[in-house]
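Fold this: Metal ABC transporter ATP-binding protein
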Amino acid sequence: MTSAIEVVDATVHYGDVLALDGVSLTVEPGRICGLLGTNGSGKSTLFKTVLGLTRPDRGRVRLLGMDGASARRKGLVGYVPQTEQVDWDFPLSVHDVVMMGRYGHMGIRRRPRPADRDAVAQALARTDLTDLARRRIGALSGGQRKRAFVARALAQGADVLLLDEPFAGVDKRSEATITDLLRRLRDEGRTLLVSTHDLAQVPGLCDEAVLLQRRVIARGTPAEVLHPEIVMEAFGVHVGEESGSTWTR
Ligand SMILES: Nc1ncnc2c1ncn2[C@@H]1O[C@H](COP(=O)(O)OP(=O)(O)OP(=O)(O)O)[C@@H](O)[C@H]1O
């Protein structure tokens, strides 16, 4: 079986800064892999490398058996950015944002056809955003914005989704809605790589996890990776079911 995501020995520098040091990671189709690490541990760099936006100095990446840039051009991989990186003053509706997922399917004039409109309507329905389709994206809550970007990836037809901190800045109810949505996408056979520094989300969401600190320092089931000694070393916090507030930093 072809792995959905395969990173082999990837090393990335930004000038003198070593951001990834010989990182290897494999995610099989239909799995949710949590990518854990503190700020600056290389999570965003690993995403950019998987997406073919950053070329590793050493090592290689395969996405569904092809290189990251080809998978991106074919629309097979969808990226849900950290919402802090988005300019919310831009006058776009939720519908406009989700339609962007169809650009790769349209001609140069980007005129939507019925298939494009159908895909957008379905993606909005899947993410429970139909009623908000005409709302400006900047007027949505944090959780609704995340769902709009997931909808964009679904409209695109992506089989692999990379989600950068989908729980940052969302309330408890939205967390549950997003977790439920991501699990359903996984159950349909999609593959998800989800970065988070919110360790409390991991056991309920992920099938497996990787702890990154420039290099992979642990990988396995959530229980294995969230072993108290490993978490203490990487995050400097204690973990324990009885003390939810100590999960995150
Ligand atoms: N464009 C850049 N130029 C120079 N250094 C960079 C650049 N982008 C990232 N870095 C550095 O590379 C390292 C990894 O950064 P990266 O953004 O991948 O980490 P991260 O785990 O995604 O962090 P965060 O959770 O804060 O987004 C950090 O030391 C960061 O300062």
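The chain has two domains: 1-76+162-171+187-249, 83-158. Residues 241-249 have pLDDT under 50 and may be disordered.
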